[in-house]
Specification:
It is a single chain. This protein is mostly beta strands. It is globular. The protein starts with 5 loop residues before the first strand and ends with a strand. The chain has a single domain (6-76), classed as Ribosomal Protein L25, Chain P, CATH 2.40.240. Helices cover 0% and strands 56% of the residues. The strands form 2 sheets. It has a 6-stranded mixed sheet with strand order 2-6-7-8-4-3, with no helix packed on it. The chain has no helices and 8 strands. A hairpin with a 2-residue loop joins strand 7 (51-63) and strand 8 (66-76).
Length: 80
């Protein structure tokens, strides 16, 4: 039996990110997802929204059908 896996090239937060330090965030997503590590990726609130910033993913954890990513925000676009 295979394991369902989704490949993502951007971070879509849907407002569920949690700040753990100044520019360091954690986000939990349903299912198993694979993200590029240590390269800049876009951050969006929804798939259709404008880019809100750029981040570098530092850590990915898979457990109990959840993916937890830890990312560092390296630039923030103004929301005004």
């Amino acid at each position: 039996m295979g394991m369902p896996l989704e490949l993502n090239t951007l971070i879509v937060t849907k407002g569920r990110e949690k700040r753990i330090e100044e520019n360091l965030f954690v986000l939990e997503k349903e299912g198993y997802r694979l993200y590029p590590i240590d390269i800049p990726v876009e951050v969006k609130k929804t798939l259709e929204s404008d880019t809100s910033g750029t981040a570098v993913i530092k850590k990915i954890e898979w457990q109990n059908h959840l993916t937890t990513i830890t990312y560092q925000l390296i630039s923030l676009n103004s929301t005004n």
